[in-house]
Write a structure and sequence with these properties.
CATH superfamily: Metal-dependent hydrolases
CATH topology: TIM Barrel
Number of domains: 1
Strand content: 5-15%
Largest sheet: 9 strands, mixed
CATH class: Alpha Beta
Order of helices and strands: HEEEEHHHHEHEHEEEHEHHHEHHEHEHH
Distance between the termini: 44 Å
Number of strands: 13
Oligomer: single chain
Shape: globular
């Protein structure tokens, strides 16, 4: 009952409030007087900035799930009194205020990963996703110049997920979909998910891969440091992308548009070891048609790294045209200074800066 009361009390316009990746609100996200909107210019030209990595919580789904026994990830957010105060960002006006202060013109709204209920059977999963996508779409419609939607799918049921994508694109103007890095301990490269990848390629819609910790390493992530998030999240993304490469999924669906959270985890930083496996131990990599580093040019990566040097390395490894802004709004593991972070990387041309700050994401998300 306590959780139900909180969810009802903090419901926002269109039944939605805004949350992040589970470690508290971004520093400076307090309700203060609304300042002037930061406008970003490159070479004297006003540009549009786009954040592809930010989260929302759809409260309306709670009556469908509240009796389920395994809501541990979600409950850890909702039942934490300190965190609860930080995530009570329950109106669009406040979000717009934060976007204005950070210089973000457009956000692609996706769910909080705790709302991916992969335990649900097909009938319940269809109802859950319908509510989530309709609410995200409704919120985007209130400010179509500031928000676009990254919808949900019930990926535990791949054929259903494909139909949900088709409906959300055609009826709800959804611009992409966020999925987790694995589903019920199954890799995204598993052939059972081929109907999903086929539909994503056919629709031309972007798929944003966001980890939900690395559950296989749970026994090693205890103790100090919140290692399930700090190490587990980028590790899950690294494993997911590596399987998509090594199992031939990216060869089978070369047109699919995948964007990976948190700079793609560790993949780009250690891609030389993956290449070395191909050139020196090819018996382990029979399904791979080219060097793993070449597949990086089929992927997109958000900018959510924490030093200029790390971001510089990602850009130099994958190309400036493959990196987009990701803030992880509004949590402390995010980056409220994403614009300045990109601009801190030396050696970028104005064309490259504009692409990273919004041009590439605008193309992926169909923002005109």
């Amino acid at each position: 009952m306590k959780r139900r009361q909180f969810l009802q009390q903090s419901a926002s316009v269109a039944g939605i409030s805004f949350v992040g990746c589970g470690l508290g609100a971004i520093s400076g996200c307090t309700q203060e007087a609304h300042g002037a909107r930061r406008e970003v210019s490159i070479g004297g030209k006003r540009i549009r900035t786009v954040d592809i990595h930010c989260h929302s919580y759809v409260h309306d789904v709670w009556p469908l799930i509240e009796d389920h026994t395994d809501l541990s990830y979600l409950v850890s957010v909702v039942d934490n009194p300190n965190l609860r105060k930080k995530i009570d960002i329950n109106n669009v006006d406040f979000r717009l205020q934060q976007m204005d202060e950070q210089g973000i013109d457009v956000q692609a709204l996706s769910l909080h990963v705790g709302q991916y209920h992969h335990w649900a059977d097909p009938d319940l999963a269809a109802k859950i996703v319908a509510v989530q996508n309709e609410k995200i779409a409704e919120t985007c419609a209130t400010h179509p110049d500031r928000f676009v939607g990254l919808g949900a799918v019930a990926l535990q049921h791949p054929e259903l997920a494909a139909r949900q994508m088709q409906h959300a694109v055609s009826e709800l103007d959804m611009r992409g979909f966020m999925i987790t890095g694995s589903v019920n301990d199954e890799e995204l490269s598993d052939p059972k998910f081929h109907p999903f990848w086929a539909a994503a390629e056919e629709l031309g819609t972007v798929i944003f891969i966001h980890p939900r910790n690395f559950l296989a390493g749970r026994s090693r992530f205890g103790g100090n440091g919140r290692l399930d998030n700090v190490i587990g999240n980028p590790l899950e993304t690294t494993v997911a992308l590596s399987h998509l490469i090594y199992e031939g999924t990216l060869d089978k669906y070369p047109g699919v548009k995948i964007c990976a959270a948190h700079g793609g985890g560790y993949l780009a930083s250690y891609i030389g070891r993956s290449d070395h496996c191909i050139t020196h131990a090819s018996m382990f990599c029979e399904a791979v048609e080219k060097l793993p580093s070449e597949y990086l040019k089929q992927l997109y990566f958000d900018s959510l790294l924490y030093t200029t040097e790390n971001l510089r390395h990602l850009i130099r490894t994958v190309g400036a045209d493959r990196v987009v802004i990701g803030t992880d709004f509004p949590f402390v593991m995010g980056n409220a200074d994403s614009i300045d972070h990109v601009l801190s990387v030396d050696g970028l041309s104005e064309v490259e800066q504009e692409a990273i700050l919004g041009g590439t994401a605008s193309g992926l998300l169909g923002i005109v």
